[in-house]
Write a structure and sequence with these properties.
homodimer, alpha+beta, Pnp Oxidase, Chain A, 4 helices
């Protein structure tokens, strides 16, 4: 078992709405992998869908095309170094979980693993769209299960009580921003 | 003229990479409009492309489908109230620029306006994808010009020197996060 708590599917868009960097994990035929992806967003509320860009040259792409499944995880600041490693090394060069120090956990609805220590994880099944995949490297997935660390997300709300637990936004070249302070407009 | 400085097209993805909330502006047949969109992301580096979700019921959708053009602007914290207004009112109920207090500025390559006072603006031409537009409300655009406020973005880098100038990340229900502190991994 893991430390994540289930998030109702109709609230799962909230995990990705603020534009955090993601980890994309995948598994097929006894292999599993994880990469970083900044280009991910919600695409619908209910049933919840996501869109994510997966480069054609990656092992992740091969595993997702073979399995039709992936998990989007939302890493936290304490994992920034591992996220960068996941984005700069290839699963073709060795086991990415060994290379990055990220740990896989069994998911509930898909074969791709959750990633330990993240703020949240979204289990997704690919909605096949060959044109988008081939022309734009764009994958659309339906979210079939969602999880969050109750220390940072509960009752449909984010609450970042420590800097280490804040989610991340990727810029380039090893530079991220942490998710900053709340701004409320009434 | 406006206060924005041109951003090279091959650096324009940096304006959207960290997942900020956007304003989508549009114009057609003598009408113009602006709405808020949290579901926007880069889709390619060069030529730069973006993906954005535009609900079928919106006036923005009508104007973009008529013109084949839109502008994505990246608002700042000082504009949070106006962004929320742009996201909660419809251009069918009145001039959104009057309703929100946001100010349009002439763009260079498209008829849709830039928005004054933002961190950055991306002028986009729609790459027609009828299936995505109809099934997912998903629009893909090629970025044909990009602009940034040199006070917050220059030489390919963000530098938020004041809290009011930070970009925003939308959660829900009038709640945003400001873009937080830089996290560098070497």
């Amino acid at each position: 078992m893991h430390h994540y708590a289930a998030v109702p599917l109709d609230k799962s868009y909230l995990l990705l709405n603020h534009g955090p960097v993601t980890l994309v994990s995948s598994a097929a035929a006894g292999r599993q992998n994880v990469m970083a992806a900044a280009w991910a967003m919600p695409l619908d509320f209910s049933p919840p869908k996501v869109a994510v860009v997966i480069d054609a040259q990656t092992l992740t792409r091969e595993l997702i095309e073979a399995s039709g499944e992936f998990v989007l995880s939302i890493p936290v600041r304490a994992q920034a170094e591992r996220v960068l490693a996941a984005g700069s090394q290839s699963g073709r060069d060795g086991d990415k979980f060994v290379l990055t120090g990220l740990s896989p956990l069994a998911a509930s609805q898909v074969g791709a693993p959750l990633i330990a220590g993240c703020a949240a994880c979204l289990e997704c099944k690919v909605l096949p769209e060959a044109h988008n995949q081939q022309r734009y490297d764009l994958f659309i997935g339906e979210v079939v299960a969602a999880w969050a660390d109750p220390a940072v997300f509960s009752q449909g709300r984010w609450h970042f009580d420590t800097d280490a637990a804040r989610t991340l936004h990727y810029v380039a070249g090893g530079a991220f921003f942490a998710t900053g302070e709340p701004v409320a407009v009434s």
